[in-house]
Each structure stands twice: as C-alpha cells, then as structure tokens.
Design a protein that fits this description.
The protein is built from 9 helices and 11 strands. The chain has 225 residues and is of the alpha/beta class. Strands 5-4-6-7-3-8-9-10-11 form a 9-stranded mixed sheet, with helices on both faces. It has a two-stranded antiparallel ribbon with strand order 1-2. Adenosine-5'-triphosphate binds next to helix 2 and helix 3.
Length: 225
Amino acid sequence: MRLMTNTPLDKLLSGGIETDAITNVYGPAGCGKTNIALCATIVCAEERKTVYIDTEGSFSLDRFKQLGGNENHLKNIIFMEPHAWKEQHALVQKLEAVVKKEDAGLIVIDSLVALYRLELDNENFQLINKQLATQYSILSMICRKYKIPVLVTNQVYGFGKDEQVELTSRAIAKYWSKALIELKKLDKPGSRVAIVRKHRSIAEGKSIEFEITEAKLKEVRLGLF
Ligand SMILES: Nc1ncnc2c1ncn2[C@@H]1O[C@H](COP(=O)(O)OP(=O)(O)OP(=O)(O)O)[C@@H](O)[C@H]1O
Ligand SMILES: [Mg+2]
C-alpha cells in the first residue's frame, strides 16, 4: 500500500510512500525536503488527520497555501512543535496514543535530527544516539501496527566536525528507514534530483529530476524540447 505525495516521488516510488514503513528524505538545505513534507501532508489531510511535527519552524502557511493547502486541510493537521530534543523525545513516546485517538493517516517529522544535532555533545553521545534509535523504533512500530506511512526528513551538512555526527545518525537512519531518498541540487538553477538509496522493492540508484515551482514539484522531462 502507498500514500501519494503529489510530487515526483510518486513516479519514482511506484505510486508513493509505503504505508507500513519509515521513508527518509535527506539532502542539503533548500533541496526540497519541506516542500515534499507539505505536499504529502496536503494529500493525507484531504481525507484524514495528519500529524505534522515541525522541529525547525520550517512550516510556512504561505507555502502551504501555494501548494494547494486550505482551511479544511488545516483542520485535519495536528501540529506539534518541539523546541528541544527532550521535548521531541517525550512527544514521540506519546505519538501512538495520538495516532490511535485521531485515526491519523500519516506522521511527518521535519526534521527528525535538527534538535538531536543541537543536543549532542561529547559527553551525551551514547545516550542521545540511543534516544534517536528509540524514536525510530517507536515510529517503526506505529507505522507497522497502524499501517500508515511515516515521512521523516534529514538535513545533510557533511563537512568538518559534523561529519562524525552525520555518519552515526545516518547509520541509525539507514537501519530503521525502509526507504531512503536522497535529494540533490543540480547545477541548473531550480533543478533537483531525487535518488532511491534504499527501498524494499525499487532498485537503488533509480532517480527522477524535478523542479520546485510556485504551485507544485514538477518532473523535468529531459529531451522533450
Ligand atoms: N513559490 C515558490 N516558487 C518556486 N520555488 C519556491 C517557492 N517557494 C519556495 N521555493 C523553493 O523551495 C526551496 C526550498 O525548499 P525546502 O524548504 O523544501 O528545502 P529543504 O530541503 O526543506 O531545506 P532546509 O534543509 O533548509 O529545511 C528553495 O529553493 C525555494 O526557492
Ligand atoms: Mg526544510
């Protein structure tokens, strides 16, 4: 079973994100992660409650509306805005009750690791990584038990002292996410590519080029002009 996202990911992933798995969309700043999170949220909120966890203050009502979101969608969205890692950790532990009570059809966490990065230091490394794994395990349990997709985003920095942090969090993400989708910016302005890095039923390396426009994320068809 799949949930459409109304983005080029639907074509890339043969119909959308899987409903019993964690899909992890990762890439650098501005590559389109939040746009994808918003598009998927709008699709789900058309019919069902959607849990939207914004850890970075990335949600923009203007952008939400540009992408087709309206007041009725908003009524179906259960917003949560943790401001610290401890808050996020406590919140994820209460998620199952929310999903059950509201019969939610999707959980979005944009981003799963922003607060983790802020919290992490040399002393608490093991504890915080254990908590990250715990959050993934809870999300994994929820999506399998309630047959709903979980969509999480990860920003990738990949330089300097962040590199080690990244490798650890990436190993945890890779273990728990049944689908990993890398987003990259291409040289051409506005152009992006989404690449399957891990999937249970789609070949690694499959990719699709897209651009972010005012109203939607659109596939760029090569060689048609
Ligand atoms: N109305 C619009 N028309 C065209 N492009 C837009 C519009 N609104 C936003 N964008 C583009 O969307 C991109 C930002 O995408 P998004 O916020 O999804 O990135 P992100 O991967 O979530 O980044 P971050 O890691 O910083 O959160 C920018 O390149 C921006 O120009
Ligand atoms: Mg974002």
